[in-house]
Design goal:
The complex is a heterotrimer. Chain A is an all-alpha fold. Helices cover 75% and strands 0% of the residues of chain A. In chain A, helix 1 runs antiparallel to helix 2 and helix 2 runs antiparallel to helix 3 (59-89). The model of chain A has no long low-confidence stretch (mean pLDDT 87). By secondary structure, chain B is mainly alpha-helical. Among the domains of chain B are: 1-77, Up-down Bundle (Four Helix Bundle (Hemerythrin (Met), subunit A)), CATH 1.20.120; 184-229, no CATH class. Chain B has nine helices and two strands. In chain B, strands 1-2 form a two-stranded antiparallel ribbon. In chain B, helix 1 (2-24) runs antiparallel to helix 2 (28-48). The longest helix of chain B is centred in the N-terminal third of the chain and has 25 residues, at 52-76. By secondary structure, chain C is mainly α. Chain C has four domains: 1-134, no CATH class; 135-544, no CATH class; 545-587; 600-630. Chain C contains 25 helices and two strands. Chain C has helices at 7-27, 31-56, 83-106, 113-132, 136-154, 161-192, 197-202, 209-226, 235-238, 244-253, 255-265, 267-271, 274-297, 301-322, 325-352, 370-384, 390-404, 408-433, 451-466, 478-483, 497-524, 529-536, 538-544, 549-596, 603-624, and strands spanning 60-70, 73-81. In chain C, helix 3 packs antiparallel against helix 19 and helix 16 (370-384) runs antiparallel to helix 18. Chain C is globular, with a radius of gyration of 30 Å. The relative contact order of chain C is 0.07. The chains are: A mainly alpha, B mainly alpha, C mainly alpha. Chains in contact: A-B, A-C, B-C. At the A-B interface, helix 1, helix 2 and helix 3 of A face helix 1, helix 2, helix 3, helix 4 and helix 6 of B.
């Protein structure tokens, strides 16, 4: 434990990702689920950056950059959908939304 | 170097605790604040991992933009009857946590037993210093090998903007177009068909069709359940 | 000449196609002239072929094209004419032509004339190709084509239920024989590696005795079906449902002779196996005898002639079986003439009697239709073997052959059969043309047939009178010296004149005794046929009921087959197959309705499934490593 090892950031990344996943699975509030998804993306970014650091590469960082860019776009669209949903249904509970069922 | 590990562990612990708080908080506002804490810690870890530019982007984009956006939405959304965390179905919770634990075990095993082998690149501290700094090195790599992905990403962002505009457009006055196929409603109270019934009654029946009233049946065509003497022949002729 | 060989079969085919395609709308009745002219042209073209073969004694052949080229195995379509084929060509086209001419009168006014005159030349075409084939596969193809044409023609009046049934019966019974025939050809190919006549015959001796016997018997199976031998002759009498010219064509000149022709053609194979020869001889003799006894008891004039055909085919078959090859072909030729004559004569009688076929309702027709009477009498006498008509020479030679090749039992059977032949032939003559008039003169006005029908009768009668002299003197006549070159192994037996004279005497005596008995029975009325029938009791019943062959088939084959078919329908098809199909559909419906519940529409559930999938994939990857999908 005297030096920073790859296992460190990998465990951090895994932990954040799994917390995000558990949040997605257990929460009913669409907004919280949305935040959990952001958390999962960030967890993956940690892995990218960590591997880039380990192998003295910048490719991982660039990937992380793209992930952030796409996450921003996703945030815009996702929040737009949530707004539309609340306007139409007046709810943010995913259990109230059963439109996927024919 | 031990200090570095210590700092890393500290930052990680705070990030994880904040993340755990985020998914357990009842109030979404609290969740959002916990997420901010996590993101800031992650940004700090990025700095430790020689990714200063990404750390800045993380702070600006996530903490600055996305989460503020989320908070705005939280304020816009009617929070009166928000579903509570503890109100979630027990089975769902068991599934969620169970899967999380299993996945943790799996990934932990993977991290501990597998090794990733790769060719080390030139971008250690000296390499970055040679390029003239962190942002310069990122820019060098990004704009030499990833021009097309950058443009694609720009296009995606543009489309996301247009999509947000579309989704956020003001409500139109007219009714949403019905998705179901049109149905006719006839009254069983008049067995010979709706046409015999007085017109106002019939309209009243039409309005009630969503109530599931037992006196009403749904039919694709009013003639499916009715037959009016004299009109049958006409109908046959038409169908022929 | 050999470059023009292809025209002989081609012309009838062209006529058939033309009549079939445009006969209904454009040609109508003129279809008959196209068909007749085409067959006449074939006949005329056959004459120089015959002359050339007579002069050169060498077979002609013309390669048309290669039908199936497949590596070492190729099937050429080559027309091949040797002495045997040349005679068959003349018989088929000659009798065919007369039948065509006759049909013009007989089918007059029938709405399906164009159809009739496209089937008839098609039949002639198939038969010509059959006799001109130079390998067994082409032979088999046209063997089947002949079967098809017979099906079409027997069922020509297909609106009549009995005609349709008879057509089916002929077709199906023939299939039984064809099955064996096809296997025989396969066995020839497997054994000798080729199916061309010449190549096969060159190496006949290479195979084992058993194989040769099996091949010969399988080929004979086909002949049993096609040439109406025991036990498959049941289709032939029923085939009388077709128009009478068809009966003449099928049962005198073309189809039934195909079986005899094939056995004659494959004689180098058959001759190698004495067992097969014996079987053929026994079946032929049994057929001849049984059919003759049945013929004596029949009242339908066409049935009498039909059973007579079966009987004469039996003669030919056992002639082949005993080794009298030339005599068999000789009889085939003479038989084509006098049997064609008998059928056409019977048709003329039926035509004149307004479609009446029962001899019990005829009698005394001699004065109404003299030409028919005299020609029919000549045919009957030729069939019965009265010297010096055609049938006498050939039949006598067959019987002589049994003696020459030491088949004493068959010789006795042949003599007895000859006696029956005489009996049924003159019975038909006397019942039809002599005695009192048993028809209703108010309703039926017997009349002579038109010239277009009587001229073929006269021509055929001429041949029935004279064709026998082809084989005069016996065993040393023109036809013997002509046919002797067909196969290298044939030889003319050296028979003393006294032997020939003795046999001729016995034959004549038998034939005349039959004539005399029938004269007493039906003209003088001094013998009661019914009394004799009563005297014979069960034997008469056996013959009158056609030896119960149809009933035996009914019990042994038809009923079990129908029962089995019902089982297949009611159980296998309705229960098993439909059940499987419906079951699969029901299973899909059921599983779908169950899986439908998984589609809750709740995003939470879907997300759980996604996570579960990820966990399972990663777990599998962890357990089995990266070679998971190898």
């Amino acid at each position: 434990m005297s030096e920073l090892m790859p296992e460190h950031f990998m465990f951090l990344s895994a932990a954040l990702f799994i917390i995000g996943m558990v949040g997605v699975l257990t929460r009913n509030n669409v907004l919280v689920i949305f935040m959990c998804v952001e958390l999962m993306l960030t967890a993956v970014n940690i892995s990218f950056v960590g591997f880039a650091w380990e192998f003295n590469q910048l490719t991982g960082q660039i990937f992380a950059l793209f992930v952030i860019a796409i996450a921003a776009a996703e945030a815009v669209i996702g929040l737009g959908i949530i707004m539309a949903l609340t306007r139409q249904r007046d709810t943010v509970d995913i259990n109230q939304v059963r439109e996927l069922r024919q | 170097m031990a200090a570095e590990v210590l700092v890393f562990n500290l930052l990680s612990a705070v990030a994880i605790v904040a993340a755990a708080a985020m998914i357990t908080m009842r109030n979404p506002i609290h969740s959002a604040i916990a997420l901010v804490v996590t993101f800031v810690n992650v940004a700090a870890i990025f700095v430790m991992l020689r990714a200063e530019f990404l750390a800045a982007v993380q702070i600006i984009v996530y903490t600055g933009a996305v989460l503020v956006l989320i908070l705005f939405v939280l304020m816009l959304v009617n929070q009166d009857d928000l579903p509570e965390f503890h109100g979630a179905k027990p089975l769902q919770q068991v599934f969620g946590f169970g899967l999380g634990i299993v996945l943790l075990i799996e990934i932990g095993a993977a991290i501990l037993t597998r090794t990733v082998v790769a060719e080390p690149g030139p971008w250690d501290e000296q390499g970055i210093a040679q390029a003239g700094g962190h942002i310069q090195s990122i820019g060098q790599v990004l704009y030499s090998g990833y021009v097309l992905p950058i443009q694609a990403t720009a296009f995606v962002l543009l489309l996301a903007t247009i999509g947000a505009l579309f989704l956020g457009r003001p409500d139109e006055d007219e009714e949403p177009t019905p998705t179901r196929r049109p149905v006719a409603t006839i009254s069983l109270a008049h067995t010979r068909g709706a046409d015999d019934a007085p017109l106002p009654q019939l309209q009243a029946a039409n309005v009630k069709h969503e109530a599931g009233d037992r006196d009403l049946i749904m039919a694709r065509d009013a003639d499916e359940f009715t037959s009016i003497p004299g009109e049958d022949d006409e109908q046959k002729e038409r169908s022929e | 000449m050999s470059s023009w060989l292809f025209l002989i079969p081609l012309l009838p085919l062209v006529a058939a196609v033309i009549n079939f395609l445009i006969g209904r709308w454009i040609l109508r009745d003129s279809a008959q002239w196209i068909a007749t002219l085409a067959v006449a042209a074939s006949f005329i073209l056959s004459i120089p072929v015959m002359l050339e073969i007579m002069a050169d004694e060498q077979p002609l052949s013309q390669h048309l094209y290669t039908w199936i080229p497949a590596g070492d195995f190729d099937i050429p379509v080559t027309l091949f004419v040797d002495q045997l084929t040349a005679i068959m060509l003349l018989v088929v086209t000659g009798v065919g032509l007369l039948v065509h001419i006759y049909s013009i009168g007989y089918m007059h006014g029938d709405p399906g004339t164009y159809r009739f005159f496209s089937y008839l030349p098609l039949f002639v075409f198939s038969m010509l190709m059959l006799v001109m084939a130079n390998n067994f596969l082409v032979l088999f193809v046209f063997w089947e084509a002949v079967g098809l044409c017979s099906f079409l023609l027997i069922g020509f009046w297909f609106r009549r239920r009995s005609a349709a049934a008879a057509a089916k019966k002929a077709f199906i019974v023939n299939r039984v024989g064809d099955f064996g025939f096809g296997i025989g050809i396969l066995l020839i190919f497997v054994t000798y590696g080729t199916i061309e006549y010449a190549a096969v015959f060159d190496q006949v001796g290479d195979a084992t005795q058993t194989t040769i016997t099996v091949i010969a018997l399988l080929l004979f199976t086909g002949a049993i079906g096609k040439s109406a031998q025991l036990p498959l002759f049941v289709w032939l009498p029923d085939a009388m449902e077709g128009p009478t010219p068809v009966s003449a064509l099928i049962h005198a000149a073309t189809m039934v002779t195909a079986g005899i022709f094939v056995m004659a053609r494959a004689y180098p194979i058959v001759y190698e196996s004495s067992d097969a020869m014996m079987v053929i001889a026994i079946i032929g003799a049994a057929t001849a005898f049984i059919a003759a006894t049945i013929a004596v008891t029949q009242y339908d004039i066409k049935k009498v002639v039909a059973y007579s055909t079966v009987s004469q085919l039996g003669f030919m078959a056992f002639a082949l079986g005993t080794g009298a090859w030339i005599a068999a072909i000789f009889h085939l030729v003479t038989h084509a003439f006098f049997k064609g004559l008998l059928f056409l004569g019977a048709g003329s009688v039926i035509h004149g009697m307004h479609e009446e076929q029962d001899m019990r309702k005829m009698g005394g027709l001699k004065k109404y239709m003299p030409i028919t009477y005299w020609t029919f009498l000549i045919g009957a006498a030729a069939n019965a073997g009265i010297i010096p008509l055609a049938g006498f020479w050939s039949k006598d030679e067959i019987i002589l052959g049994t003696w020459l090749y030491d088949h004493t039992v068959i010789m006795v059977v042949a003599f007895v059969t000859a006696f029956f032949t005489s009996l049924y032939m003159f019975r038909a003559v006397f019942m039809t043309f002599h005695g009192e008039e048993r028809f209703d003169p108010e309703k039926v006005h017997p009349h002579e047939s038109p010239k277009v029908m009587t001229i073929p009768l006269i021509v055929l009668a001429f041949f029935a009178l004279t064709a026998g002299f082809m084989g005069f003197p016996p065993e040393d006549g023109w036809i013997h010296h002509f046919l002797i070159h067909s196969f290298p192994g044939l030889s003319l037996p050296d028979v003393a004149f006294s032997t020939i004279a003795v046999f001729a005497g016995i034959s004549t005596l038998i034939a005349l005794s039959g004539l005399y008995i029938q004269y007493l029975a039906y003209v003088k009325k001094s013998i009661s046929p019914a009394g004799i029938a009563g005297l014979l009791g069960p034997l008469y019943k056996l013959a009158a009921n056609r030896w119960y062959l149809d009933e035996i088939y009914d019990v042994l084959i038809v009923r079990p087959l129908v029962a089995f078919s019902m089982f297949l329908w009611r159980f296998v098809d309705a229960q098993v197959i439909d059940g499987t199909v419906n079951g699969v559909a029901a299973l899909v419906t059921y599983t779908s309705s169950q899986w439908r519940r998984a589609q809750t529409g709740l995003i939470a559930n879907y997300v759980v499934m996604i996570a579960l999938g990820a966990v399972i994939i990663i777990g599998a990857f962890m357990l089995f490593g990266s070679n998971l999908f190898d």
